[in-house]
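Duplicate of #3305? Posting structure anyway:
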């Protein structure tokens, strides 16, 4: 079952990678266009086609856009890889947790419980664990 889930995940990963490559390509093109606009703006100022005020205003806008695009390119490639890796780790954890908890050492049991969450409480002599939503770490990025 684990192999099936990981194979299915890898199929979806290929499609996601294609989408990410398309988005990254578009962002890189927009970044190149922004750089050309900055160069053209510099040329216009050197030829005195625009005054200092207009130059500074436009340059500030273009530099902000350039930084935003650079950040988008950087974070976009990291998010896709991280999401796939987290999903694979979650499948591996889920597939091995029961066997490791039943037959593992005290340290194995502790790591499994910590992997499930960190908010433990006893109620009527039963241990309850308030689990974390696995996808919450994806949304934070």
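Output from current build:
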């Amino acid at each position: 079952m684990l192999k099936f889930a990981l194979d299915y995940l890898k199929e979806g990963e290929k499609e996601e990678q294609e989408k990410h490559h398309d988005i990254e390509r578009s962002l890189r093109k927009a970044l190149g266009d922004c750089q050309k606009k900055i160069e053209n703006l510099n040329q216009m100022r050197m030829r005195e086609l625009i005054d200092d005020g207009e130059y500074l205003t436009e340059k500030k806008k273009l530099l902000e856009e350039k930084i935003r695009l650079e950040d988008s390119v950087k974070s976009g490639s990291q998010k896709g890889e991280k999401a796939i890796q987290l999903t694979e780790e979650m499948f591996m954890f889920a597939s091995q947790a029961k066997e490791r908890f039943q037959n593992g050492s005290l340290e194995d049991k502790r790591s499994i419980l910590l992997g499930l969450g960190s908010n433990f409480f006893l109620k009527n002599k039963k241990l309850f664990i308030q689990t974390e939503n696995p996808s919450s770490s994806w949304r934070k990025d």
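Confirmed duplicate; merging threads. Residues 2-103 form one domain. The longest strand covers residues 119-123.
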